[in-house]
Amino acid sequence: MERASEGRVCDVLVVGSGAGGLATAITAKKYGLSVIVIEKEAVFGGTTAFSGGVLWIPGNRHGRTNNPGDTREAARRYMAAETGNWFQPEAVDAYLAEGPRMLDWFEKETAVQFVPTLYPDYHPTMDGGVDVGRSVLAAPFDTSALGADLKRLRPPLSTITFMGMMFNSSNADIKHFFNATKSPVSFAYVLKRLVAHAGEVVRHGRGVQVTSGNALAARLAKSCLDLGIPILTETPAMHLVKADGRVIGVDIGGKNPGRITARRGVVLACGGYAHDLARRAEAYAHLKAGGGHFSPVPEAITGDGIRLGEEAGAAFDAEYPQPAAWMPVSRVPGKGVFPHLLDRYKPGMIAVLSNGRRFTNESESYHDVGAAMVASGEAAAWLICDHRTIRKYGLGHAKPAPMPLWLWLRSGYLKKGRTLAELARACGIDTQGLEETVSTFNRGAREGRDEAFHRGETSFNRYLADPDHKPNPAVAPVEQGPFYAVRMEMGDLGTFDGLKTTVPGEVLDRQGTVIPGLYAVGNDRASIMGGNYPGAGITLGPAMTFGWITGRHLAGVAQETDSKTDNRERAS
């Protein structure tokens, strides 16, 4: 296991090993700088390794195949509409110009590869929104290519794997597993996957065919290691070192404490503050109101980069209306936190508050549903379905047929009632409210309509639903008992508030002056999304794009946004 030693010197020191940090490190190294990455945990990959591995990059070459009519102007209008008063024109213009170039550069120069997706923007009916073409996904990866470093790759979030196997959220794998007991083709496919996975576990101690964010983290790490960039794990950054007003390095702790000097700059890439309990208690409205919060983000994401920046005089303010990317989660006894990424979209699912009333369109994005939970004043809700629906799609961590339900029922994770009234009593939901809600919902749902929240009327609502369910892939009645429920609570996928920076990532102090030698990328840098969530991949897209911009800036390479090129691309 590689650890730091006393007195090391490099051009660029990156603190953190998520997508933003590794993108910066790879870029700086490719342009001739010496680079060291330090990571306080024993594993690398950060929150990226837990994520969906999707990047929102308007104008990318993969997306142009599916949507050749999309333009940068349309994406800019969409960003302006989504961010409102928090629109940052200079940063947004740089992001939209450099994002596609970043993607092409990484695919040409490194082991990082992407595949297209059919994801719509999350609000496709907004000005500039599109139904397809802006989100790409990390290509699957065989992590055995990491060799001995495989043991240092953060495993995927266990609650969203099946026996350790990974699936992309929109992958055909999931459909095969849903249909394994109904289709010989799907049964054969699932059997083949299970046998292959068992072989991987025997040979490597874990599954090595990974997808989503685990694939992206692995590809970025492989690219770093191929370039000879050391990733020093179990090496926490304790304090920044300054001389003559400039940040010149970091004092490190761990088993080999010492100092690493950086001639060009120190890059903070510690992933934000999702588990900084004191900071989020000040920023999260539902915590101030006495609610709970259960983040699936790695527990080591405790705001280290922001703390280090503040010690050097950096400006941090929790100012966005929504300070984090909200994710409804449920707590699985003995296993951790389950993020509700897919089940909410399926027909036959509804979410209600303790009064038994629906409060939002369940098929909107996780962030929008989470924001609605916060706005409800409860910061929690019950996701409810009938027997037919749970056996077809599962519910939360409870899996569809043929997996039995008794384990989740026995643990108390899953609630059950022969009637809606019995379910309401088991959950502490108002009985009359629930019965009236379901009755009203079912009247329209039998014809594929959601008169209250218009569920299934946008391309995004339909994208993760069931295309085989007619007439509305996102709507079906809740009517065949017994009935089931899972309690959803507030979580997040990472924080939006971060350190103030210039476009190239130079950290600013409270007077708006650059702190020489100090940079921030990823969730340590304030998000350009203004506390909103426009589409799949709006965290990783900016993380890698601005990581690339920061790496080039450190190497003295100017942005390629001259007016001639910019005008030519705007016309395309």
TrEMBL record:
Which domain of life does the UniProt lineage start with?
Bacteria
- Annotated TM spans: none
Q: Extract the SUPFAM superfamilies matched here.
A: FAD/NAD(P)-binding domain (SSF51905), Succinate dehydrogenase/fumarate reductase flavoprotein, catalytic domain (SSF56425)
User: Transmembrane: is it a keyword of this entry?
Assistant: no
Q: Which Gene3D superfamilies match?
A: FAD/NAD(P)-binding domain (3.50.50.60)
**One Pfam match, by short name?**
FAD_binding_2
**FAD-dependent oxidoreductase 2 FAD-binding domain span:** 11-540
Alphabetically sorted, this entry's keywords are: FAD, Flavoprotein, Oxidoreductase
InterPro entries recorded = FAD-dep_OxRdtase_2_FAD-bd, FAD-oxidoreductase_2, FAD/NAD-bd_sf, Succ_DH/fumarate_Rdtase_cat_sf
Provide the protein name. FAD-dependent oxidoreductase
Cofactor entry = FAD
